[in-house]
Amino acid sequence: MTLEEIRGQESTMEHADRVQSAGAALEELLVAAKKQDYLTVGVYESAKVMNVDPDSVAFCVLATDEEYECDIALQIHFTLIQAFCFDNDINVVRVNDIERLADLVGSDETGEPKDAHCILVTSPSANPWKDPSLDKLSLFCEERRSVYDWVPTISLPER
């Protein structure tokens, strides 16, 4: 085994640890934001918030799974949301476990699971909300962008 192969294995393990840590931070952030009523859940609801008050958006989560991967309309919405986030310096991550995300954000008034394809963590502009998990995720996103991973994929911890 060459030195490059050993370093490659080490960096792969470090990356896996960082992704796992980011997954735990994302779960903590969503739970805390839900308690503070700082979550916007749903593609259309998120688009409305971004249009009306873009400065209130602190973080964006896009979620899909194999069932929705071929949904062209959803992919177009994702592209537009990502472009908006990039233009407004909002960190964006992808999660491939939409059911787990739906469990975290809860259900609507009728008991139906919410549309968890897009989740925004918002914060009032007048009184910005600070959370250590948000700081961890911001650092993770910054590190991933430094290696040209513009929308990193995060795995949520198993329950």
Structural features, described:
By secondary structure, the protein is of the alpha/beta class. 52% of the residues lie in helices and 14% in strands. It has five helices and five strands. It has helices at residues 3-36, 43-52, 72-87, 98-105, 132-145, and strands at 39-41, 57-63, 91-95, 118-122, 153-154. The chain has a five-stranded mixed sheet, with helices on both faces. Helix 3 links the parallel strand 2 and strand 3. Helix 1 (3-36) runs antiparallel to helix 5. The relative contact order is 0.22. The model is unreliable at 6-10 (pLDDT under 50).
Please give the count of helices: 5
Instruction: Please tell me how large the radius of gyration is.
Output: 16 Å
Strand order of the largest sheet: 1-4-2-3-5
Could you give the order of the helices and strands? HEHEHEHEHE
Helical content stands at 40-55%
Mean of all residue-level pLDDT scores:
84
Strand percent estimate: 5-15%
Shape: globular
How would you sum up the major sheet?
5 strands, mixed
Q: How many DSSP-defined strands? A: 5
Flag low-confidence runs.
6-10
Between the first and last Cα atoms, what is the distance in angstroms?
37 Å
What structural class do the secondary elements suggest?
A: alpha/beta
Map the helices and strands:
Elements: H1 3-36, E1 39-41, H2 43-52, E2 57-63, H3 72-87, E3 91-95, H4 98-105, E4 118-122, H5 132-145, E5 153-154
Parallel strand pairs: 2-3, 3-5
Antiparallel strand pairs: 1-4, 2-4
Helix pairs in contact: 1-5
